[in-house]
Amino acid sequence: MRTWFPPGWRERLRRGNVVAFGCGALLMVLLLTWQSSLSAGPSQPDRPRPTISPPSVPATPQENCGGNDAELVVATGDDVSTGSVRREVIEEWNGLLKPPGDPRAKLLELSDSTDVRRAQMAALAQAGSCAYDVLVLDVAWVTEFARHGYIQPIDLEGRDDRFLSGPLLAGQIDGEQYGVPFAADAPLEYRRRDGRSGGYLLQLDDNEMGTINFLETIELGGGKVLDGDDRTAIALDLEPDGTWRALKSSRRTLSSTDESAAVLRESLQMDEDASVVAFKEGEAGGQPVSYMRNWPIAFHQLAADPRMRAPDQRLTFDVHAPVTRGGVLGGSVLAVSRHIKPGKLAPAKRLIDRLTSPEVQAKLFACGGYSPVLTEVYERYEGGGGPSCQRQDGSDITNPSLDELAKLAAETRKSIELARPRPKSPYYAQFSELFRRCARGVWENKVSRETFFASVGALEGALSGRVQDDRPLCGKEGT
């Protein structure tokens, strides 16, 4: 069966800017990875954790830091919406709304890989570059960028009560606001309505989405991985039986029911996009698919496909939020580079105000599927009064109806309010890689129960900036 994608997808796929860095930036990324993982020795859970000094950020003279004075560069990931709506919003700002003296905003799409994008942004920030003025940061990376001095605090001027609490707190580090909520994310369960008895798809590929899904597999299943106010305490061994049972379970309990469905092993090769394609086609690796865990933005990707609508245009799938336990909080914030030139600071704040306005947040939701961060927008949709998408580009994309948007808004808000953040550690990336390697090893039958729980000390060390010693913990030899 031929896979359907919305118009313009090939052109957007080619927009990655990884090649723009060249060999110099690649070396910078490697240096950053090496420096941030300096070891303080093997983990000693029963001893006080040492204070880890962040990497130094050079005081590069402003005239030598790079950048274009005529442009306000917004560094972000690939626009995965069905109509490049983020780019439309930036164009509207430049054409009609930008104050005459402000530099034009430029949306610079970096790698579509969250991990690579983080390394790109961090490498330039550590080098003192002002090539990026505003960063669209995944909420998981805010602590790293704040404590390492890559971004600066931003004053919300008493308007913080506009935002949902989870996304707002995700941008707060050590009592200061470093990121303004831009897009919220939390897991939703998608169900096909074709009456077939198929399996459940997760995204367990070897990237950050794999980490998120393994965390959810354990914690939605009744186990425990993280604890503490900042979620930086490792609790794997506090409930070992429940944790192991949840991780090893071959079934997922369905939202709002007591039923369950088999989790397909094909999930180990799935990321967000691949699972959406498999869900549309109703099969993965020859196995029928009836359920999928994904982000809210997948709703628009599905609703825009004619195959996912009946002849009367009703959707052939449904969507539900988790009802008993929360998943992992995702999403992004808008942050201002520590190295932004002084003349661009006020324009950057004006652009951020526009991008977090009710008008823009509703458009990003209705036309692109990006979940809002403003309470007001959810209340409007849940009350039946939110705007639907009015496209001006002549595309043949089928936009969700107002009723469909109202249902999506209600389920998304439920999930966001239940969701829990990832650890607020500047060394979260180290934890993520190690935890995912161990969890994948269990699923691949390469890692024993004993070895998995022996990773507690190494995981604690990773969150404190210490790398494990030379033991093959959770590697092939660790079974």
UniProtKB/TrEMBL annotation:
Region (Disordered): 39-63
SUPFAM superfamilies, per database record: Periplasmic binding protein-like II
Protein name: Extracellular solute-binding protein
Source species of the chain: Nonomuraea deserti
